[in-house]
């Protein structure tokens, strides 16, 4: 679980300044996802400071939003395996067997595919 949370923090840190035209506003993806998942910057910071902390459902919603926003997960919940491979060290067979990510807590299953 520690590797999983660290993996997501490193990734989300990299996209914190990605700008996108959501609802015709120029806001960062991270800010949009915090609003959508109803988590505060303090909550996100807490996980960055303590990666061993067990993620809440709200935090998984934040991660799902970020991953969807950058194209790692499409609107149907399917993973873009080629994009994952280009960004992270993962078990490709595990990703291929991954069910659709349709609800926030489905994000937890991705931890099994991250290589240490």
Write down how many β-strands occur, each being a DSSP E stretch of 2 or more residues.
Answer: 2
Number of helices: 6
**Category by helix and strand content:** mainly alpha
| CATH domain class name | Mainly Alpha
The CATH architecture category equals: Orthogonal Bundle
Alpha-carbon distance between the two ends: 11 Å
Mean pLDDT: 81
Would you kindly provide a written description of the structure presented here, covering whatever features stand out?
- With 116 residues, the chain is mainly α.
- The chain contains six helices and two strands; from the N terminus they run H-E-E-H-H-H-H-H.
- The chain has one domain (2-113): Pheromone/general odorant binding protein domain (Recoverin, domain 1), CATH 1.10.238.
- Strands 1-2 form a two-stranded antiparallel ribbon.
- A hairpin with a 2-residue loop joins strand 1 and strand 2 (25-28).
- The termini are close together.
How are the SSEs ordered, and which strands pair?
Layout: H1 2-15, E1 19-22, E2 25-28, H2 29-37, H3 41-49, H4 57-69, H5 81-87, H6 92-97
Antiparallel strand pairs: 1-2
Keywords: Signal
Protein name: Odorant-binding protein
Signal peptide: 1-20
